[in-house]
Amino acid sequence: MRSVEIELSGEWDAEFDAFLSERIYEFNSHATGLFDGRAIVGRIGDASGRTIAGVTGHTWGGTCQVTYLWVQESHRRRGLGRALLGAVEVEARRRDCTQVVLATHTFQAAGFYETLGYRQRAAIPDYPIGHAQLLYVKKLVASGAA
Prior knowledge:
Strand content: 25-35%
Strand order of the largest sheet: 1-2-3-4-6-5
Helix content: 25-40%
Radius of gyration: 18 Å
CATH class: Alpha Beta
Shape: globular
Distance between the termini: 59 Å
Order of helices and strands: HEEEHEHEE
Structural class: alpha+beta
CATH architecture: 3-Layer(aba) Sandwich
Number of helices: 3
CATH topology: Aminopeptidase
């Protein structure tokens, strides 16, 4: 194997991240025949237009993945996270998704997700050290189903 030069950086590069995401989506879509991937983004602003809560993720192949869900600390425990996640679930059903997946850490919002019907499916211990990353799944019931 010949030697190659690798450039590593500690700086976030949103453009490069998007480039890699697009390449992975292309590969995955061709491998599975599923080309229905779409972003899902929600935002709540205050009276001055500043973002106080938001959610991002995507839907693809019958699954909705929540990447980030955040509520500004001073606005927590007011139902904003619940409202955002509820809106995501409604849109996911509209897009024919049968489940929502997300990851959180033991020091974040595990209890919040569990009260909304999410079930832990996996844990990665010591990520970060002394804590764990948790993977949650919620099965979605079709809009018209009982």
